[in-house]
């Protein structure tokens, strides 16, 4: 990227070479001494919780494009301290900065976009596999909701940008990790209660709220469950 392009940073143009960013991070992660890696880790762990919901200027927004290129974010050891907190910070952005980030995502190269999608798909799988080991249920709920909502945001961007095929959002392992019939029933009951009263039901994360991550097998199970529920509802009403 030419120097003058850097100064073109705007709500529509990030003005950053993400390939160079990735190369730089890879060099830093493999450099000696290893204490440098630890310092970077500590700095990021301290930085992310302090990211504001309304960044001071558009250039400050570039941090959300830069951080995922660091190999630390792709290491499952740091999902809970880096990757998932970053998703939470992104989902806390106010409307205008959130729109800026969506604009930038629509312009990144397909390879970057796919890496970001794969990163948060892996984070969802990590949480589903380790659900019982997270001692504080609210943390699990907050983390997986942030990851799923970020994937939902990326899916929305992709519908216009067409960076990747829609099936790249699928998480095939889901059918073996959750009971889709039970998950859909929880979603169905939650939706029904919201319409009657302002959700007297305890908040719970239902993956059926994010059908774009379901492959054909999972979608079939979900539709079969819906058909059974609709029949039961009709019987009760008749």
TrEMBL record:
- Kindly provide the name given to this protein in its UniProt entry: Probable E3 ubiquitin-protein ligase HERC3
Q: Which organism is it from?
A: Notechis scutatus (mainland tiger snake)
């Amino acid at each position: 990227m030419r120097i003058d392009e850097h100064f073109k940073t705007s709500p529509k143009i990030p003005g950053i070479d993400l390939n160079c960013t990735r190369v730089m991070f890879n060099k830093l992660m493999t450099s000696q001494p290893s204490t440098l890696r630890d310092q970077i880790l500590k700095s990021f762990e301290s930085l992310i919780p302090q990211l504001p919901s309304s960044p001071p200027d558009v250039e400050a927004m570039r941090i959300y494009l830069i951080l995922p290129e660091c190999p630390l974010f792709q290491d499952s050891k740091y999902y809970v301290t880096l990757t998932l907190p970053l998703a939470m910070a992104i989902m806390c952005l106010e409307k205008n900065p959130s729109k800026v980030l969506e604009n930038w995502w629509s312009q990144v190269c397909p390879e970057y976009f796919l890496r970001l999608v794969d990163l948060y798909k892996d984070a969802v799988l990590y949480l589903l596999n380790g659900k019982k080991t997270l001692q504080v249920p609210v943390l699990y709920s907050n983390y997986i909701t942030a990851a799923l909502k970020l994937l939902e945001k990326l899916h929305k961007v992709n519908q216009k940008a067409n960076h990747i095929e829609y099936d790249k959002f699928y998480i095939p392992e889901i059918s073996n990790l959750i009971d889709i019939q039970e998950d859909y029933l929880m979603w169905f009951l939650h939706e029904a209660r919201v319409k009657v009263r302002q959700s007297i039901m305890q908040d719970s994360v239902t993956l059926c709220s994010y059908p774009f991550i379901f492959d054909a097998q999972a979608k079939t199970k979900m539709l079969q469950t819906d058909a059974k529920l609709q029949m039961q509802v009709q019987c009760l009403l008749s």
